[in-house]
Design brief:
Elements (H helix, E strand, L loop, with lengths): L1 E5 L6 H11 L9 E5 L5 H7 L5 E5 L16 H6 L4 E4 L2 H6 L4 H13 L3 E6 L3 H5 L3 H12 L7 E5 L13 H19 L4 E5 L7 H5 L6 E4 L6 H18 L1
Parallel strand pairs: 1-2, 1-8, 2-3, 3-4, 4-5, 5-6, 6-7, 7-8
Helix pairs in contact: 7-8
């Protein structure tokens, strides 16, 4: 089970310090893996604060080149040097706001993997695709265009674009159907199994129902991960879910 906390462009140094103070009062489980994705300037700072905890640090994006004249970008090698283990590639906000194409996302994912970073590759449909019954086909096509040619460490995050930040989420059967579809598509085309996270308005109220979906291997959490109380509540729900499933 994997809990990914995407802080996006939130939490300054003071807020991060207070957040981490509470983490040291919590007993973590070896059964649930957690990774926090802070804003770029605070990666090293966060990594130093939590280096004694079983939590990893990840980057919210990386470039497909290891170095060069790319103002404002970050090299996957730099993420590794800062202690990152994971990187999020193809988040819907990067796709829409920064106009990242499927091919560019594929290159970024491959570059990260070649640098020994573990990739969380994001895919997801908009509301129009969902309402027209085109969600499965759209995500399949998106996935096939973005999948790196070679990978060992890859997770897929299904994040329906219409659900992010809205409080609305697909129903249990829709999530299960999509996650099952993603796993079958990847297996068929790469002969490899992948874990699939759900992302999109995950919070303390819906975490139990989401984790009870058979094909959900974890969650990608946005706003609910900014408060340490909510982050730990979501983590605790994952631990409870695993203990109950034994």
């Amino acid at each position: 089970m994997f809990i990914a906390a995407n802080w996006k462009m939130n939490l300054d140094k003071v807020s991060i310090s207070k957040f981490c103070d509470d983490l040291y009062n919590y007993k973590f489980s070896s059964k649930v893996e957690a990774c926090i994705f802070p804003s770029l300037p605070y990666m090293d700072y966060l990594n130093n604060l939590i280096k004694k905890l079983p939590i990893s640090v990840g980057g919210q994006n990386c470039h497909y080149k290891s170095h060069g004249a790319f103002t404002g970008e970050v090299s996957p090698k730099f993420l590794r040097d800062t202690g990152c283990e994971y990187v999020i590639i193809g988040h819907s906000e990067r796709r829409s706001i920064n106009n990242e194409s499927d091919n560019e996302i594929k290159l970024r994912a491959q570059s990260a993997i070649d640098t020994n970073l573990k990739v969380i590759l994001c895919v997801g449909e908009n509301l129009s695709h969902r309402e027209k019954g085109y969600a499965l086909k759209f995500v399949e096509q998106q996935l096939l265009k973005c999948l790196p040619n070679d990978f060992k460490n890859l997770l897929v995050a299904y994040e329906p674009v219409w659900s992010i930040g809205t409080g609305k989420i697909p129903n249990v059967s829709e999530i299960n159907e999509m996650h099952d579809h993603i796993k079958k598509v990847v297996l068929k085309n790469t002969n490899k199994k992948v874990k699939v996270l759900y992302g999109g308005s995950v919070n303390v109220e819906n975490i139990d129902s989401i984790l009870n979906v058979i094909n959900v291997d974890g969650v990608l959490v946005g706003g609910a991960s900014l408060k340490v109380k909510d982050f730990l509540a979501i983590y605790s729900a994952a631990v409870k879910h695993l203990n109950n499933s034994i």
